[in-house]
Amino acid sequence: MSERSERPADAASDRPGVDNFVRALGVVTQAKRGFAVGLLVAVATYYFFVVASGGSPYSTAYLVALAAVLAFTVGLLATFAFTAGAAYRLYRRLE
């Protein structure tokens, strides 16, 4: 059995540089913000296109599934944008 397979999953990372970079960019915070934006966009889209327009011929389960896909997709894109912005600000500060 190799040494790698015996290490617990929560052991210190073998790549501390990556951990430091992720921490410096605040990826966890950016992900929280990004998925909050995604959720807000999905709720607003559902409201404007289903509730405010008087209903939909499609089933509620189908529309909720589409809203979940929209929330996830927008959340990922917003997270990427927020993290890219943090990387640019970090680059400008370190320059």
Automatic annotation (TrEMBL):
What is this protein's name?
Answer: Uncharacterized protein
Q: Record's InterPro entries?
A: DUF7536
Sequence intervals crossing the membrane: 35-55, 61-88
Specify the species.
Halobacterium hubeiense
Q: Name the keywords, alphabetized.
A: Membrane, Transmembrane, Transmembrane helix
